[in-house]
Design a protein that fits this description.
- By secondary structure, this protein is mainly alpha-helical.
- It has one domain.
- About 75% of the residues lie in helices and about 0% in strands.
- α3 packs parallel to α7, α4 packs parallel to α7 and α6 packs antiparallel against α11.
- The longest helix is centred in the middle third of the chain and has 30 residues.
- It starts with a helix and ends with a helix.
């Protein structure tokens, strides 16, 4: 109960800090909308290619953009952790009885909740552009779940890197190195049938692609063994990332 209470209070603290930066909120909401409009127009003719397998590119891209939002929004969560380290806030927290795990978990939950808000706006935007979710409430819940799980995983990696390196430049460079290949080694913006064989093979071990598969199959109402398998792998990946962040925090406490 102490862990849950501490997580909630720290989450509220971070949420209030975010609310004090309205430009950040506006940009984080507008970003997925711009991606939807730009990608929807730029690649709309690819549906005419044999083997693409979709009648509308907006229908195809909507769940992919939800995952892209998670990828880019949560990857720099560690920057906030670095600000707390540099400002002495984290050390002051450690001098209190606050749950140590709650310090990291609260940031991960904030990143996941922000991405779910963006995903909700994105779904509404896709509806206005003609996309139609076929999976109903369950399907949309899977879109949100996939985005939130991926956001939590990447936020945990980012926080872990911040605690280990304690340098903003290192966190930004490392996350850029991670997220760009993961984006293009997935079926986020292109149908698997049109990808080179080596990229298609690489995508099977890519957590971003697992999230895309879960979101897209859920959006299309195709509840299947493939969806369940990718969801299980995504959950496992998120748990592993949380363990990495926890280990990094333990190392920080020990002065490593």
């Amino acid at each position: 109960m102490d862990f849950l209470r501490d997580t909630w209070y720290l989450y509220l603290r971070l949420a209030r800090m975010t609310r004090r930066m309205p430009i950040f909120l506006v940009l984080s909401i507008m970003q997925p909308v711009l991606w939807m409009l730009l990608f929807g127009q730029l690649f709309r003719v690819v549906i005419t290619l044999p083997g693409f397998g979709a009648d509308s590119y907006i229908q195809f891209i909507a769940p992919g953009i939800a995952i892209m939002t998670a990828l880019f929004s949560a990857s720099y969560t560690g920057i906030g952790m670095l600000r707390d380290i540099d400002g002495g806030v984290l050390d002051r927290l450690l001098a209190t009885p606050v749950s140590r795990s709650a310090v990291v978990v609260s940031r991960v939950l904030l990143a996941a909740s922000q991405v779910m808000l963006q995903a909700g706006i994105l779904v509404l935007m896709s509806l206005a552009l003609g996309a139609r979710p076929q999976g109903g409430v369950l399907g949309l819940s899977l879109v949100f779940a996939a985005a939130a799980l991926l956001a939590a995983a990447l936020a945990a990696i980012s926080c872990g890197l911040a605690l280990i390196t304690r340098r903003q430049e290192m966190v930004i460079a490392a996350m850029n190195f991670i997220i760009l290949p993961m984006t293009f080694l997935s079926s986020m913006i292109m149908a698997p049938g049109l990808m080179p064989e080596w990229i298609r093979a690489a995508s099977r071990g890519n957590p971003v692609n697992w999230a895309v598969v879960v979101a897209r199959l859920g959006f299309e109402g195709q509840i299947s063994t493939e969806l369940a398998l990718n969801l299980a792998m995504l959950i496992t990946f998120t748990v592993a990332c949380a363990f990495f962040a926890t280990s990094a925090f333990r190392r920080y406490q020990q002065g490593g």
